[in-house]
## 1
Amino acid sequence: MQRHANAPGTVSHVPQALRQPPKDFERRLLSRNGRGDILAANHLGRALFSPVYADPVRPPNNARFAFLSPHATEFFRHWDEVANDTVAMLRAEAGRDLYDRRLTDLIGELSTRSEEFRRRWAAHNVRMHTTGVKLLHHPVVGDLDLPFETFPLPDGPSQFLLTYTAEPASPTQDALNLLASWAATNDDTERSAPANDSQSADSGETPD
């Protein structure tokens, strides 16, 4: 389980809904707040949104990725819908907390750097979709059609659990299984890398 406890505004513990038996891991993938920050994710959730995690800024932020990353329009197959929902989410959050400095800074950054964001922000749309189908193109496993639901969490007034499902025996389910294997392999590699580096340093070995 990956969480971002040191980042301001994140949860202080991993939500119980993300700490479920393995059979449920493919449904309960991550939690986020009203700014679009990913607060916590299990291994599959982190792998699914690996393009968002590629940004070194922490916590990873869906809004920043959607409007500022050159990869967003490829990752989100229906980017216009995602962009509209993202702006609506930020508008709703601004209505809940007018004095959220991190939210104000984010909106200012997006307004300065993205014409697409400025145009949508000016439309004052606050209609959000809490259910639907997320159409993604993942760089490792290709197209994914993922029905999703968003549920409020008791950890805070604007923290949400996102669940994604796939039809059994569907191409998307097969792709998720492949993605889970890829995530496990990458996780094992990351865990072993520091130990290998330390052993090399201790032994005094140098590359040829």
## 2
Amino acid sequence: MSAQDRTYILEARSTDDDVWVLIEHDGQPPPVPWLLPDGSDVFQLIDDGHTERLGFVPRFVHANRGTRVGDLLWTTGDTKIASRRFLEALASIEATGYRTFPVDVVDREGRALGDFAGLAVEDGDPGKDLHFSNGAQFWAFAASGRVVDALTRAGVTDFSLAPRRETQQDTTSP
């Protein structure tokens, strides 16, 4: 099997050295459950990249002592945040299986932490370049070998990467 044919699992690094960001709303942690008036779960809408329904841009704030800013940021949940250069590498090969959405990512003083956007994987279809690795939105996701090659060629490597074992194949249908 060539590297192009392989599937990989990608996720944000989450050591103490890495920057972790947490969502906040109106300067505070959001309520749990966090629901829209129609009963929709705000966290799920963000995870799935359907933020146009929210009426605000999700805001993530640096929450730990870590100083290493990665190409994927650890959010302690299923929301994925990607650097602009990560997204540009995906766009350069016309990768499939994802959508992006606006987010604000700031330090504790409210200054931009970098150029980031939300990244939502669309579904579990292994025929797409990005797809679920666990049957649903999750902090880790599957990526094709051509995505990993494009990221590597572009020097976009500040995230955790592991080859997917055959037993990790997603069993959900698209």
## 3
Amino acid sequence: MADIKFMNLSENGNPALTDSLLIGNSDSGLKRVTLDTLKNTVAPAINKPLLIVKSTPINFADFSANGFASVTAQNVNNYTFLCWLSIVPVNSSVHPKFTSPDKSSSQAWLDDPNADWQTLNSEHSSGKDPWFNAFAIYVSDSVMK
């Protein structure tokens, strides 16, 4: 252990990940550990975003006359659905909401099914082609384990 150097990290504003520390406990005594090993133990390397947002389209034809449309979140590799964020209208003045924002399979519903359905139908008939983007939040599987 002659090559172990005790360093005051405050003296070196930029320690290298190859620098080492002595750590220990009463069970296994003292051991030499590099800062890189310690970093990977405390915070594993994550090479992708922790959270992402993806959109799922809801078309005019998806809505029934009773004011509901089924919506299912996309499957995203290496990510887990967390919740629905919002529904954004495109070419429409109607603002649907989710029945179960915490479920990947949910329903978008109209506030006032009769009036909003008439508005939506009128927008469709006028050639506006109304549709909606349902935005979902996904969290990395590396966090969800």
## 4
Amino acid sequence: MIAQRAEMHDKELNANDAIETLLFQPDEVGEDVPEGNFYARARSLIGLSPLLSDRIDRIVLVHRLREVIAQIGFTRFEAAMPDIDGELSLDVCRAALDIEPTWVPAVENKGEGIFISFKKEAIENWLKQDAVQKRGRILYKGFDEWRNQRGLDPDKAKFPGLPYIMLPRNCE
């Protein structure tokens, strides 16, 4: 399974595939060459302060990442919203760019970043904090109002949940 993910670095990845690649990759994925599309390596957790090592499961340094975004259509008033899995909502009617497009405008972004995976227990403990729960209720209420203003079905537009949102230590 890990070998399959390592081979995916030059293929099209959706959000879940990309996260799984970063979570379960061997210590290094891709080639560290200037013309490469993807190169990442795991950072050793040795030497992290206990505050961090008790909470962090994995750190991956992404040295090279290529992202291509293509415009396949447009909406007049409301953007198509991806769900928690990155899939676009089908409730928004998209107009095509052309009747039979032979090409679409696109942009290629190259960048880098850091992927941090937190331990499940650390997230569970964080979620139990009163300040986090208080802030979560405020965020959920705002999301609920946004969804109601747009007449979105609660089964299709769901609040992603607090584990997907990083809140500062002092939530006031």
